[in-house]
Design a protein that fits this description.
By secondary structure, the chain is α/β, with parallel strands linked by helices. It has 7 helices and 8 strands. The structure holds NADP nicotinamide-adenine-dinucleotide phosphate.
Amino acid sequence: MPDTSKTIALISGANKGIGLEIARQLGQRGLTVLLGARDPERGQNAAAKLAGDRLDVRFVELDLGRRETIAAASAWIAAGFGKLDILVNNAGIADPADGLPGTADIEAVQRIMQTNFLGALAVAQGMLPLLRKSPAGRIVNVSSGLGSLTFNRDFASQFADVKLIGYCASKAAVNMLTVHLAYELRDTPIKVNSADPGYTTTDLNGHRGFQTVEQGAAEAIRLAFLPADGPTGSFSATAGPEPW
Ligand code: NAP
């Protein structure tokens, strides 16, 4: 019989960047953290490092492009833990061939949508039966201010020049996933919300972001621990709600 007394969290793309920091902070709060990564060596190394800090962190193979790894991870979690309490859909990519709609490489846009949107959807679907077994399931979809139609439409905004049709559309689609899944689960204890980490220094942006990963992880962590009367179907950053 699996031990269901512990709080179990799964984070996709957790071998580095914001996902790794989310894994660390969830581990520091005493959770059992399932560190999802597509590359076993990178994932095992990251999990071993956190485990070396006496955190309960275990690697699980999760490649958003290989659905069989999602099914295998779900079966492994079911056998070992019987439920999942927190899912952070964090894995994501950008692509140098992305750009303005007139010139962006279509294959690059497809790759981005495949990972950032379809990957998050597939992981949510794969983990839903386990989240339904939690007394208080929480799904955090890591989105971006670049997924906000309102911000994109503001031609005077700080990020007005960042018109990456693939990346921005993928994050808008992630926000749609948040809203639709929150609706589907409205009569359950599960809450589904989008977190905007803010511009954070990671490999994704060549370390041009001006926030630390600790700052980038903060909103996802807050949403992972929402109380029973907290919001569902929301989109927020540490400064507060974001416009869709
Ligand atoms: P990062 O350091 O590049 O980390 C991205 C993670 O996603 C890596 O672990 C990567 O694994 C993983 N990943 C990529 N494709 C995958 C796939 N097919 N299957 C499984 N894992 C995959 O980037 P980050 O900045 O921490 O990004 C984390 C999330 O925050 C992303 O969703 C990103 O869009 C979002 N975000 C970031 C910023 C920012 O300023 N950094 C701002 C807003 C939103 P590998 O190491 O194997 O490549």
